[in-house]
Amino acid sequence: MRTPDEDELCYPHLGNSSCRRIVRSHSASVLFHIILSFISVLTVTLNLLVIISISHFKKLHTPTNFLLLSLAVSDFSVGFVWVFMIFLINGCWFLGPGWCVFYVALGFISTSASVGTVVLISVDRYVAVCDPMHYQTKVTNNRAQICIVLCWAGSALFHCLRLNNFIENPGEFDSCAGECAVYVLPVARIVNVVLSFIIPVTIIVILYVRVFMVAVSQAQAMRSHVTMVTLQSSQKVNRSELKAARALGVVVVVFLMCLTPFYFATLTTGLGVKNISSYIFVICLFYVNSLLNPVIYVFLYPWFRKCVKCVFSLQILKSGSSEANIL
């Protein structure tokens, strides 16, 4: 028969070599499982709808939408990271060191690719708004796809190198049985913050400030009934491009709000927290961005709402449906 102390252990039969679980009431534990499961399912489902929509309908095969597709793939992957977080809800890891490596690597690579994709989206909008006459020649489907591949490959290579010791020696840094511990050298941690946050955010902010200035100039010109706006590029900006820039601007702002606390905490205090509650908060906020992105699309993109209707009504199974004008 187990003693109360043994009930607090992840592996009671291992005694003191086992990690201790986080003790919660049964109702609290069930509530946490339900919430995390709901977020995971919703994140996977909504991003899968984005992936299906852009992949299926040929009218949506544009450079901007390919970037949204890349963002959806990274967010879709994060949905599975939520699944692994459910296993850690009581502070015990039962899946073994191999799955621990997969969970950590998937989280880092997918979120890093997400950051890189948001940078590419900012560049895309900058060229579309600030240099509209050359947008079609500078930003093509092939170039967008190459940039996306390089973004994912770079993210995977960087984090595999950063987590090299952890990947080669899974479980080595666990202080007790039932832990999924990651050790990263302080230098590597700082480099990660610089490459995955400081530099990308600087680029994003600079580009969107420029886009915002052009948008303000365009709005002022329309109010004064001016048909041609004198900008640095000396060209009139297409209103649809401005509308797309504003919509994607919302994505960028939400992105910064969700990721900034995590990277700020990482830079100031290592893994960013002095207690488990703070750790859970910054991590959840970090990952919940992957749920918010497709929710934003629902409200800002009419074509996405049409695509969702086509998917649920099974119209995409009809012959020639990929040629439909969904815009």
UniProtKB/TrEMBL annotation:
Keyword hit for Thylakoid: no
Residue ranges of every copy of the G-protein coupled receptors family 1 profile domain listed in the record: 46-297
GN (gene name): LOC114471912
Database matches in InterPro entries: GPCR_Rhodpsn (IPR000276), GPCR_Rhodpsn_7TM (IPR017452), TAAR (IPR050569)
PROSITE patterns (UniProt xref): G_PROTEIN_RECEP_F1_1, G_PROTEIN_RECEP_F1_2
GO terms assigned for molecular function: trace-amine receptor activity
Predominant location: membrane
Pfam family, one: 7tm_1
Similarity annotation: Belongs to the G-protein coupled receptor 1 family.
Topology class, membrane: Multi-pass membrane protein
Cellular localisation: Cell membrane
Spans through the membrane: 30-54, 66-89, 101-123, 193-216, 244-264, 276-300
Keywords associated with the record: Cell membrane, G-protein coupled receptor, Membrane, Receptor, Transducer, Transmembrane, Transmembrane helix
Entry's Gene Ontology cellular component terms: plasma membrane
UniProt cross-references to PANTHER family, sorted A to Z: HISTAMINE RECEPTOR-RELATED G-PROTEIN COUPLED RECEPTOR (PTHR24249), TRACE AMINE ASSOCIATED RECEPTOR 19P-RELATED (PTHR24249:SF381)
Name of this protein: Trace amine-associated receptor 6-like
Lineage: superkingdom: Eukaryota
Organism from which the protein derives: Gouania willdenowi (Blunt-snouted clingfish)
